[in-house]
Specification:
The structure holds 2 protein chains of 2 kinds. By secondary structure, chain A is mainly β. Helices cover about 0% and strands about 55% of the residues of chain A. In chain A, strands 2, 5, 6, 10, 11 and 12 form a 6-stranded mixed beta sheet that branches. Chain A has a 4-stranded antiparallel beta sheet with strand order 3-9-8-7, with no helix packed on it. A two-stranded antiparallel ribbon of chain A has the order 1-4. Chain A is globular and about 45 Å long. By secondary structure, chain B is mainly β. In chain B, strand 9 and strand 10 form a beta hairpin. The model of chain B has no long low-confidence stretch (mean pLDDT about 95). Classes of the chains: A mainly beta, B mainly beta. The interface between A and B is medium-sized, with 22 and 24 residues.
């Protein structure tokens, strides 16, 4: 079974600065998807960014980018120019491409605080 | 599109009571899921469905039941509620690559 580990329970960043959230995973599969989800105090789960394992290029969505290191099984999220609205829980998630159910395996999350 | 909707938003149950958490989606997705999120933790899969009439257990199915009689609806049944089932419950639906989540139901069992 796959596992996802987020070793940083909490992180803090000043507004306009850059922060990197870490995620490692364990799998024996060669093809899969990785995701970062944001969960603000409203509880809503919001997809931030997605990475396909077969793609060497790191995914980017505006101020959010990933550093995907397949051999190291590492998938970190970089948030540039941090804003107060970025304060939230961030979850890393893994999804196999085999099977029919597209199930997600989540890490335990990192709480990001953004300070003035 | 309303997306994925869940009712109720909040509920307090007494030990031993039963209830059904409702989930509906209007995106015609075949895949649907139920997760629970305990305080300070990630989401864990309870049950999932790949289509009407087909359901299967996830990581933490004990104490729960599901049914899927239509593509749109995927209710989660709690029988004999226990304090260990105090959690936030999320329903989600999916097409090929992305899961869409409902707003969650906060359940407290006292």
């Amino acid at each position: 079974a796959q596992t996802v580990t987020q070793s940083q329970p909490e992180m803090s960043v000043q507004e306009a600065e850059t922060v990197t959230l870490s995620c490692t995973y364990d799998t024996s599969e060669s093809d899969y998807y990785l995701f970062w989800y944001k969960q603000p105090p409203s509880r809503q789960m919001i997809l931030v960014i997605r990475q396909e394992a077969y793609k060497q290029q790191n995914a980017t969505e505006n101020r959010f980018s990933v550093n995907f290191q397949k051999a190291a099984k590492s998938f970190s999220l970089k948030i540039s120019d941090s804003q107060l609205g970025d304060a939230a829980m961030y979850f890393c998630a893994y999804r196999s491409v085999t099977g029919t159910a597209s199930k997600l395996t989540f890490g335990t999350g990192t709480r990001l605080q953004v300070t003035l | 599109n309303a997306g994925v909707t869940q009712t109720p938003k909040f509920r307090i149950l007494k030990i031993g009571q039963s209830m059904t958490l409702q989930c509906a989606q209007d995106m015609n997705h075949n895949y649907m899921y139920w997760y629970r999120q305990d305080p300070g933790m990630g989401l864990k899969l309870i049950y999932y469905s790949v289509g009407a009439g087909i359901t299967d257990k996830g990581e933490v199915p004990n104490g729960y039941n599901v049914s899927r009689s239509t593509t749109e609806d995927f209710p989660l049944r709690l029988e004999l509620a226990a304090p260990s089932q105090t959690s936030v419950y999320f329903c989600a639906s999916s097409y090929a690559r992305e899961q869409f989540f409902g707003p969650g139901t906060r359940l407290t069992v006292l």
